[in-house]
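User: What would this chain look like folded?
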Amino acid sequence: MAVTITTGRDVSTGNYEINKGYVYLISTIAALGGLLFGFDLVIISGTVSFFADHFRLSELETGWAVGCINLGAAIGAVIGGKLSETLGRKKLLMLCAVLFALTGAGTGWAGSFPLFVFFRMLSGVAVGAAALVCPMYVAEISPSAMRGRMVSFYQLSIVIGILLAYLSNYLLLNTGENNWRWMFSSQSAPSLFFFFGLFFVSESPRWLIGKGRNTEADQILARIGGANYARAESDQITLSFAEKSVAKVSDLFKKDVWHIVFIGIVIAVCSQAVGQNSLFSYAPELFKKAGMAQDSAFLQSIIIGVINFIFTFIAIATIDRAGRKKLLQYGSFLLFIDALALSTAFYLQLPGIWVLIFVLAFIAIYSATLGPVTWVALSEIFPNRIRGNALAMATLALWIANFFTTSLFPVMNKYFGLSATFLIHALICLAYFLFVRTRVPETKGQSLEEIERLLSRK
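Assistant: Here's the prediction, encoded as structure tokens.
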């Protein structure tokens, strides 16, 4: 199964027969880390009222219980950058899979609130490391003409994980007083599936070349696109490492690369601050506040997962044609309008059906634009020589932003109300739109090395 793809100017002395089936296989398996990412983050949405009652938590403690996973993810992002360079992408993914399996059961059957938080944060370490290395690996293994679509599969895996989490919560809702424990424990099954699937995945050729293992890298590249493709890609990658070596985190602040790192940090932070975390993590609670019964609120959450899943395909179909920048612009502006509508709906206390419509529209817009494009942009804008550390810094910022937006939601809701909360999200969306319009470059259709040269000139 092959398709002819011209992969970029520097490697386009001829057309290459890309083994599309092989690229799809390894990218899909690696992207399953996103399924566990989405499942782990959202599974808590159906458990909030149950474990809060069980442990007798205040609003602040409830926010801490929901948001603490993001601090763990921040830790995972920091250590993941280093581990991805020392262990390699594949081994780190296998380690994440084991952590996902252990912490799901550990969180579910924790006997005390401190132990619950411990396992939840440890689960976050796996989330943060996987969120860093999964899109990085897929971007490094994929030919440039396929890269946007392949990395978008990572976001598709996230939304599948979200959908499965909502469905799992709904199916386990009436299993008794331990229903929330079983909800958390259900995470262990897909984790083991991911672990065994990774045995069929190759190591990243860019990581191998960075370690001087060019022969192994050439074999993988040849399997992807043939001998000519392997030689051309290997030459480009080797040159990008030879130009300069950056080994320290402090070097990310140097003049020639800091502007690139800064763009990545803003993309990462805004992807979490626009409002989707409030919807994903507290969906049943939001719908109950809008007047819906508990069973109905859980069912509406499944609809969120379905909408999220369906609209991700729009991004997959358009990202390599429309481009990253255009989707980020359209998405941030439309989310600004929708967040204003949600703020108005809560302020005027409109019927629950209007809240549902605006929530589903918000999820649809995010899933078709910011959700997938964020990971594509972060996986490709950083130069080879700093990719591990730079992506670690960007994802660290992402998880810190995720922590604050998730953990502060119950407090903001109590003291400011839902209308003011979503008005703040609307203003963040508008600011992000202006940033993308003025600072974010277009990178579609270019090899990672071409993108590096483009951004290094700015």
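Residues 1-14 have pLDDT under 50 and may be disordered. If you want, I can go into more detail on any region.
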